[in-house]
Amino acid sequence: TEPLARVVSVDGTVKYLFPGVGTRDIESVMIPDGDRATLCVSSQAGCRMNCSFCMTGRQGFHGNLTAAQIINQVLSVEESERLTNIVFMGMGEPMDNLDPVLGAIDILTSSWGLAWSPKRITVSSIGKIDTLRTLLDTTKVHIAISVHSPFAEERASLMPVEKAYPLKDVLQLLRGYDFAHQTP
User: Fold this and answer.
1) Phi and psi (nearest 5°) for 146?
2) pLDDT band, residue 17 (cuts 50/70/90)
3) CB atoms inside a 10 Å sphere around CB 36
4) Which residue in 113, 115, 167, 106 sits closest to 138, CA to CA?
5) pTM for the full model?
6) Half-sphere exposure (CA, 13 Å, Cβ side) for 44?
7) Is the alpha carbon torsion for 88, 92, 98, 104 positive or negative?
8) SS3 state at 162
């Protein structure tokens, strides 16, 4: 599906609008940086996490994207052929829509798909432990955890998910994994 709109910023950043779920369209953002071109993709239309600093969370949750809708964002941007990195940090919490995110990662990294190295893919998450564990066990992509504050009470005021998935528990999970594969 072609983008509904494309807006270029003065710094070269390109924001794309795609059809989403129901009445909620989704965004993808291409960020140029020298010889790198990173595409931030959405995994949901809206978000359930309600983080105070996030506009998407304030818009409420409208639905999950399919793996096809996620991959469409990668293939339909004008810069598709020169993308160097993908980051799952557009609209939505990737760990709240894990199966389609894993499906998109499979398409991106499999020899029958786009054959990208998993080192070119980063999944950003608030740290939903159960699904994060599955992602860690089944992929070699990079992981980025939204912290925003190392202090539980302050983080909870910014990110209600702190109550369900405390940062100390997320860090404990991460300590059990070897991230040597994430070096360039």
Assistant:
1) -75, 115
2) very high
3) 11
4) 106
5) 0.93
6) 22
7) negative
8) helix
